[in-house]
Amino acid sequence: MEQQLQQLKEEALEAIASAADVKSLNGVRVKYLGKKGPITDLLKGMGKLPAEERPKMGALVNEVRGEVTAELESRMAALEEEAVARKLDAESIDVTLPGTPVKTGNHHPLTRIIEEIEDFFISMGYEVAEGPEVEKDYYNFEALNLPKGHPARDMQDSFYITEDILLRTHTSPVQARTMEIKKGKPFKIICPGKVYRRDNDDATHSHQFTQIEGLVVGEDIRMSDLKGTLDRFAKKMFGEEREIRLRPSYFPFTEPSVEMDISCFKCGGSGCNVCKKTGWIEILGAGMVHPNVLRMGGYDPDVHSGFAFGMGPERIAMLKYGIEDIRHFYTDDLRFIGQFRRTEG
Amino acid sequence: MKISLNWLSDYVDIEGVEPAELAEKITRSGIEVDAVDDRSKGLKNIVVGHVLECNRHPQADKLNICRVDVGEEEPSQIICGAPNVAAGQKVVVARPGARLPGGVKIKKAKLRGEESHGMICSLQELGFDGKVVPKAYASGIYVLPADARPGEDALALLGLDDTVLELDLTPNRSDALSMLGVAYETAAILSRDVKLPETAHEEAAEPASGHLSLRIDAPEANPLYAAKIVRNVKVGESPEWLKARLMAAGVRPLNNIVDITNYVLMEYGQPLHAFDYDRLGTGEIAVRHAAEGEVIQTLDGTERKLEPHHLLITNGRQPVAIAGVMGGANSEVHDGTTTVVIEAAYFDPASVRKTSRELGLRSDASTRFEKGVDTNRVIEAGERAAALMADLAGGEVLSGTVLFDALDKEPKRVTVSPDFINERLGMKIPFEEMEEILDRLQFPYEAVNGQFVIDAPTRRVDISIPEDIVEEIARLYGYDEIPATLPVMESLPGGLTLYQKKRRSVRRYLEGAGLYQAITYSLTSEQESQQFALETAPVTRLLMPMSEERSTLRQSLLPHLLEAVTYNTARQTSSVALYEVGSVFLGKGEDGLPAEVEHAAGAVTGEWTGGGWQGGQKPVDFYTVKGIVEGLAAELGLSGKLTFRKGAMDGLHPGRTADVLLDGERVGIIGQLHPSEQKARDLKDTIVFELNLERLLKEKTEPLLYTPVPKFPSISRDIALVVPKAIQAATLQTTIRANAGNMLKDIRVFDVYEGDRMEEGLKSIAFSLTYLDPERTLTDEEVSEAHCRIVAALEEEGAQVRN
After folding, report:
1. Is the peptide bond before B703 cis (omega within 30 degrees of 0)?
2. Interface of A with B in 275-304 (CB under 8 A)
3. Subunit notes for this chain (chain B) (predicted)?
4. CATH architecture assignment, domain B44-157
5. pLDDT recorded at residue A244
6. What pLDDT does residue A274 have?
7. Average pLDDT of span B61-90
């Protein structure tokens, strides 16, 4: 019987080893360990043994059963693992195929530039002021020291609606309106918006374009404050290593008036096609608020002074992104707008 | 303004300063130099030639074979095609090896079998602008004066050994519209002196006043009129140097008399006019305003109708010039003129400006008068012209000046303290340095009680207030010296207004939803200006549009947005999703201005989802766009407040258009373009929306408060209904809500079917209803009870409830 048991064990172990899958292994389990299997039979036959042999034999059968069971379980685990691996392998995909596109739009490049400028000045304590695009001649010209017949009106041929109403030619009327609203109190504002001039649309002109102007009015505002503000702005917008320089210029609403150049951000000042070999790029116009403008806005030029500056987001975007034709901003070609999605830096 | 440096050095010493350096200095101190044009650049081996013989080329009708003495032992044979070439002329010859502008190289050549050793040049070939070339030489070679020596360098003779600075003047610096003005500026920059032109001349004993009487009827418009008479002039070509200078300044030489008036105009910035005394005919000059309907033929041959506020120079009977703008043809100097009246006058800037604008006539004279000429140089300029006419045209100047003078020539007095200057600039410029700058500018001043009392020279019409002196000091001291500081003031909270913040959220939301931001033009055609308008009002039209296409302000953003969609689809971008935030203009608002109302609009066409390799493409439809608008309402806290109903609008599909309502008021529209509109715009199915954004952003919303997350489970029940097609989902929902009691938390449509499997005219619609009591767990019984009530109500309204 002992011999029989030993043989049974070897047979079982061999069957376990050669089982190729879970199903056949389960067959092995039923065959050897099942209720009708040979080991069970042996245990059932124990009663026929002499009483003194029973404990020894019982232990032996249990030992064989334990060994076979353990082997079976270990084999079972291995086969299951293999099965899972096969399934996973079958499920594998081509990870180099493109992902499902997430469809989102993005800002127009001008909005991107304008918001960047707004955010810089907001961080410096400025408010964002807005005003109408159809404006009174008074706010567009007269309140800005441009009385009727002023030669500087030549510079900005305008779209008139009536003798006294026109499409604003700059965002400066917002400055005049803000001074009226602030009633003599100090303030700092930035005014973005659309403006219009009688120009034929071509690569460098557009009858509609955008502007951002800034105005600071208070007591003892100095030209050095203007320079310091513009210097910070230039560094923030075009890079910390930018230098600025001021050149005398003329605007009817400021005195003194200046143009601000920044050192070329492409070549760093050594001269290239962006800066037309000069090392400098003209970015904006600025100046100290003309006393007539302060006076008309209800501020006493003996007490108050201020500075103002203005720039064109189109020009800044063209310089910054290398855009060659201003008309791109107004054709709304998705192949153009879609390029201004990503973050920079 | 073009500044010849050769000419400029008549008045100020610029020795030792390179043109580029001078240009940089002028630019940095206030007048922008646009270009530095070295006129001799690229020119080489160009000499005077003497045409000894000139014969027709045997093989070519239009060519001549010339033998030209170019200063060498043997004359050169040169083939010349110019119609005006002739034996005996002194001409400009580009010899073999010569270089001409544009990199043209002259080589020996054979023309129709004949050798040509060089080229006889026109002025254009030497780089002159055709507009300044004297008419006689405009379509041929240039002929030099008889005393030019063969072989001599022709560049100096033509004034091409010169550099010209092109100034881009700001409107305030009209002083720099003259060589003298630029000389003062240059002198201030370089700390050098100014040498004034010679005005002295001999005068005949006979007084001018014996030949000319003067009457000024409009002294406000013409406070100064000075006339000189020069007789026995010989009209002819000007000397080479004068022609060269005029051409360098961009003026076409005409004859010595006119050239002299133009020369003095450029030199002093004082426009002059020369009348033919005999053609004037009356011995009288009378200045008056035009009569109603009066007409004059100007020098350019054009007949011009005048208005009563236009100032005229007349001979006492008829107009001979439009004052300060242009002379008349009837009194023009011509080849046979012997006696000339030189007019030197001051005309009111505003009057000249108005006249020149209205007549569309801008001249070198009017641009100077309208900015205000130097009151103290009017008479002097007349003297200068008389001296030049005596010198260059052999004229005899009659003694004295026929003069009317009521002009205020006092300089403007400006008082300013050094402290004020330094405070405004944020600098500490020493007093002595300010004094030095005023000296360099040649501004007469006195220092009284620590203040500068300055008499601003009348040539500088731009100087009148203390701030102007601040600028003068600063620009010559150097803007680089200004320190960089920040304003010292009460610190103010900056930031966006609530409205501006919400607008930014709207943009970000719409972009997140898949729309790209467009910016289109506000001006459109009058015809298109009201298409798709939510609310129409009188149109706002330009007085003088540049084209009908851009004549009227828009009342809807959609027409241009749709144009942009077509632009894209026509360029292989078949799926387009654009939005715009911008103003529409509704006429007759407050203060005579149109009301500007900010709108948001969108237009979407093509595929909305899918499009990758996984398929699943779904074209955009009404509900896609409605979903975007509903999402926007949620973004703005207006969910529930914003409602929709069947709407209508021209250009939109009558069955696929919804009005968007806020508190019962239409604030927007969503719809598919009408098929005919789509066809006209060459678009496939396109869905649009437009919202009165301002109205939405200004709507006050409830404060954002947290609602407790439910602690108890909700129960869902579905209802599937079969109803006539015309029954709207909203109607059914209203019935459901009205009968559900307060346990109903949410209704969701989860299926709609109308098709083959349905009976004609019917559709099936299925709702999922969620019941919830935040305080307890609901029982099946109470939900069933509510559900039964709903079913009963729906059945009563004719819906079949499917099970």
Report:
1. no
2. 288, 290-291
3. Tetramer of two alpha and two beta subunits.
4. Beta Barrel (2.40)
5. 94
6. 83
7. 91
CB of B370 closer than 8 Å to CB of A151: yes
Of A59, A91, A123, the position where a domain reaches its end is A91
* Residue range(s) defining the domain that contains residue A323: 109-337
CB of B137 within 8 A of CB of B123? yes
Whether residues A125 and B479 touch (CB distance < 8 A) is answered with no
Contact across the interface for A332 and B593, Cβ inside 8 Å = no
Under DSSP, is residue B503 helix (H, G, I), strand (E, B) or coil?
helix
Q: Distance (Å, rounded) from C-alpha B132 to C-alpha B636?
A: 66
Optimal mutation site among B169, B517, B558, interface A, most CBs of chain A within 10 A: B517
ipTM above 0.90, yes or no: no
The verdict on a CB contact (< 8 Å) between B353 and A151 is yes
Per-domain boundaries in chain B: 2-39+163-190, 44-157, 208-405, 412-479, 498-698, 715-802
Give the CATH number of the domain where residue A269 resides: 3.30.930.10
What strands lie across the sheet with B319-322, from one edge to the other? B213-216, B284-289, B311-314, B319-322, B326-327
* Residue B238: pLDDT over 60: yes
Identify whether residues A323 and A283 lie together within a single domain.
Answer: yes
Interface touch B544/A208, C-beta < 8 Å? no
Put simply, the chain A residues between 60 and 89 with a CB less than 8 A from any chain B CB are: none
- Alpha carbons B199 and B260: distance in angstroms, whole number: 13
- Summarised one tens digit per residue, pLDDT across range B620-650 is 999 999 999 999 999 999 998 999 999 999 9
Selected for mutation to probe chain B from A122, A127, A249, A334 (highest B CB count within 10 Å) is: A334
- pLDDT category at B104 given cuts 50, 70, 90 is confident
Residue set of the binding site of B for Mg(2+):
462, 468, 471-472
Does domain B412-479 fall under CATH 3.40.630.10? My reply is no
Q: Domain B498-698: give its CATH architecture.
A: 2-Layer Sandwich (3.30)
Kindly determine whether residue B425 and residue A222, on different chains, have CB atoms separated by under 8 Å: yes
Dihedral sign, CA of B787, B792, B795, B800? positive
How deeply is B726 buried, as exposed, middle or buried, from its count of CB atoms within 10 A (0-12, 13-18, 19+)?
A: exposed
Q: Are B710 and B772 in contact (CB under 8 A)?
A: yes
Nearest residue of B to residue A249 by CA position?
A: B30
CATH 1.10.10.10 is the classification of domain B208-405: no
Q: DSSP readout, B447-497?
A: EETTEEEEEE-TT-TT--SHHHHHHHHHHHH-GGGS------S-----B--
- Residue A182 makes CB contacts below 8 A (sequence gap 6+) with A217
Please indicate whether, in this complex, the C-beta atoms of B593 and A165 are within 8 angstroms of each other. yes
Give the distance from residue B571's alpha carbon to the nearest chain A alpha carbon, in angstroms. 9
Mean pLDDT, rounded, for B603-632:
91
Q: From A199, which residue of chain B is nearest by alpha-carbon distance?
A: B546
Q: Where are the strands (E) in chain A, listed by range?
A: 127-128, 134-136, 165-167, 187-196, 208-219, 244-251, 254-263, 280-289, 304-311
CA of A291 vs chain B CAs: smallest distance (Å): 8
**Quick one: pLDDT at residue B504?**
97
Q: Please state whether B800 falls in left (phi above 0), alpha (psi between -120 and 50) or beta.
A: beta
User: B467 vs A256: CB contact, 8 Å cut-off?
Assistant: yes
* Closest residue, chain A, to B520 (C-alpha): A330
Cβ distance of B423 and A216 shorter than 8 Å: no
